[in-house]
Model the fold of this input.
Amino acid sequence: MSREHAGTGDAHITVSHLTMAYGDFVIQRDLDFSVRRGEVFIVMGGSGCGKTTLLKHMVGLKAPVSGDVLYGGQSFWNATDEEREQAKRRFGVLFQGGALWSSMTLAENVGLPLRLYTGLGDAEVRDVTAYKLALVGLAGFEQYYPSELSGGMKKRAGLARAMALDPEILYFDEPSAGLDPLSARLLDELILELRDSLGTTVVVVSHELASIFTIGDNAVFLDGSAKTQLAVGNPRTLRDSSPDPRVRSFLSRGATDGQATGTGVN
Amino acid sequence: MAQPAHLAASRNADGILEIRLSGDWLLATPVPPVESVLAELRGAGPPARIEIEAAGLGRWDTALPTALVAIERAAAAAGVPVSDRKLPPGAQRLLRLALAVEERVDARRAPVQRSLVEQVGQASLRVWAEVIDLVSFIGVCAQSLFRMVRGRATYQRSDLLLAIQEAGAESLPIVSLISFLIGMIFAFVGVRQLEQFGAGIYVADLVAVAMVREMAPIMTAIIMAGRTGAAYAAGLGTMKVNEEIDALSSMGVNPIDFLVLPRLVALILMLPLLTLYGSLLGVLGGTTVSLIMLDVSFVQYVAQTADSMGLSSLLGGLFKAFVYGSLVAVAGCQQGMACGDSAMAVGQATTRAVVMGIVLIIVSAALLTVIYITLDI
Done:
């Protein structure tokens, strides 16, 4: 439905020859791809191949060994600390478990970025917060603490917080992990809705095939043993005609013939 | 009633090793060892083939495949084919499953034996690394304090007030109890000793000087290391595990300013105040004991106490409290921020925060005492 929307913009995020390592242990080397404005881009690959680590490099939580990430052509890692802090306000991140601040209510969680970075008064912050929570289906939960919520609700509240400053880019770390199929689907629909209505660029770390095929316009496939990217492109195209058998096999759940197997969402 | 498990291995004329299994192979009952079969396989002239017969086999659970996997692995190592077609189909499938993936050669870890010298060396290197971490954290905190003074640090005033309440007001009961009792203990000891010389009234000096200059700062700081320093490490460590600190950083908020600074400032402000309060309670405890045990009036005792105290003693004690407070807060916050990302790591961070806090208190107490004596304060 939203496919015609996708992938017409210029490069919004460019990952350029990025190498990531923990100490001497290289996780991934020479990652090179770009995410176009307004598309849903998937970072996929098997467990432990470094998907979440890549996300941490893209949002400034871990510095790369070499290479760079560019936002709209502006270098992120070669910028000054000040510029980097500024750049961070242009994106929102939804962490795997929501990562809500446990000592604050939902309203305080969502309201904090607003109070820190906008000149809004208390009443306005309250209104914006209520609206953001309503967007993710949590209207009325303002005074709840994160520990009082289910896993799916925490994720949605985390999304409300990530969206608080109307970011140009939203990052999702395993949005459907730990959710039941129905909640996972609702979250996927919410992601598409946000992209379509706000034009947000969305980067999703995921290994859920159903979700990858539903929302992904483009994707990069990381491999843990090759320690680099194996393919970049539309996930369906990769499944059907990637020259690399490892990519076809992953995207068709290990069935030998990538063409034949249904994933139920085609 | 389970039939006893039985294993019989015999080699026939063609060099085929026949293994007959019978009885119930259950974990709950003793099963025969497979050592004899393994010895055959390892010894000179291994069998041409192994055939497993299971005609008399009764019930079985994990005990059976465990034994058979050992045999099959040894046989595979010796290059001897094994025929297990006579096993129950379920057991065959489980065996296939267990043997389907080769053991990863590099996965198994040998327990590393280190010599004593190496262990001591590594421990020293770790201590040195911890010292470096602590010193650089102190530097980061100092930068953050500087930003706060210039009004450029991002933190919430409500967090600071909450931290002050938790470190200050909520610590009053325990500080009251400990200080009062310590004052009483000093007075007891003092009365016993000084009365022998008819110098009972000097108990007032003993209690006041000891409490104000040494005991109140140290005892309050140790209480705060166990109470607040531990809470800082556990709280920040749990936030680290939950990615809450990452969430702050990704939003462009400096977690040191936002999380560490309010805690640090709260403890640095509150510890001197608590020490002052603790000194007062200690002197009060001493007064109580002295009035009961000595033949002095309240006014006499208070006058003697006031005489013994100079402003320098008071300020000296407060300065100590300031130093201890900084150290306890830094130790707690540093361990919390450096916490690993598991539940166990939070516990370790908390333990280390308390131990490090107490060690730092005592070491700096010794240094400060020497400095005070040298400077004649």
Summary: Chain A touches chain B at residues 56, 59-61, 85-86, 88-89, 91, 93, 95-97, 99-102, 112-113, 116-117, 158, 161 (CB under 8 Å). The longest helix of chain A spans residues 181-198. The two ends of chain A are 13 Å apart (CA to CA).
